Amino acid sequence: MKRVTKLAILSTLSLAFAGEALATEWNVSLWGKRRAFTEHVEKLAELVSEKTNGEFTLNISYGGLSKNRENLDGISIGAFEMAQFCAGYHADKNPSITVLELPFLGVDSLEKEIEVSMAVYQHPATVADLARWNATLLMPSPLPQYNIVGVGDAPKTLADYKGLAVRATGGIGKAMAAVGAVPTSMSATEVRQALDSGVVKAVSFAPHAHMSFGTVENATWWTTNLNPGTVNCPVVANTDALNSLSDAEKEALMSSIDESLAHYVSNYNGATMDAWGPLLDEKGIERVTYDADALTAFRDAVAGPAASAWVEENAARGLPAQDLLDLVQGMLK
Fold this sequence. Notes:
This protein is α/β, with parallel strands linked by helices. It has 13 helices and eleven strands. The chain has a six-stranded mixed sheet. The chain has a five-stranded mixed sheet with strand order 2-1-3-10-4, sandwiched between helices. Strand 1, helix 2 and strand 2 form a beta-alpha-beta unit. Helix 2 packs antiparallel against helix 11, helix 4 runs antiparallel to helix 13 and helix 6 packs across helix 12. The longest helix has 27 residues. It starts with a helix and ends with a helix. The N terminus is likely disordered.
């Protein structure tokens, strides 16, 4: 009798352990805190868990797994299975997607940003570029055009930017340099301290980031229509981890991307932007708007030369740079 009981207990435990072994958990490396910029990843985790009855889960960490500038390195060695990063943090590691950070591309909506980004992500040259890091691009983190928050006297003309230290990465940094500003690249989590200490006098961000990282707390001005460009921040999976998923798990993940992005766009265009204007009013932040002639001159001086330089630099890397640029510009005409 005792023997039967022991066997029954062992069998039950074995089944329990087998059940646990069948569950799949992925670690996901983000940074900062939950915000508009991460809502698609949060939604993705929710949908994947629902579709697999909790047998496939995404464990999201905000800075506990890696520094944001090291997320692609972490993906490459399998330190975690999914991560978010921004192309401008390390352009040399992901040159193909930096085409999406060129200034004044003319992207006018989050929906268009998604469409163009996904086309670039699926280009064979981009797939091969990220494969060097054992990474598969899943989806973008679409952002509106960046604008600038700053302290001190507001730059009422583009000439007033001369000598101004601005946190600006990628193509936005090149655009700011073209009007005489001094662009500085730093991660988002470092920006508030740099602004408060005077290391920079202005910060280029999308609205959600100005709110999330506190740059509006002591700011005195905000540009409403400079719109020099945006950054491209994809969500990627470790390719080996992705390939090791069962068919059902992979379907649950990949089939949830469109809904996750739709949730992101709805949240950004709704709650995030609804809060932005009232916050500027509450903080007494001056809105700076430039006239059309000044913006046209700015765009004409920056866009063409930046695109030409990008093609030359990346063609030398062996990328079909002109093809990638033509793809983007063709979709935006």
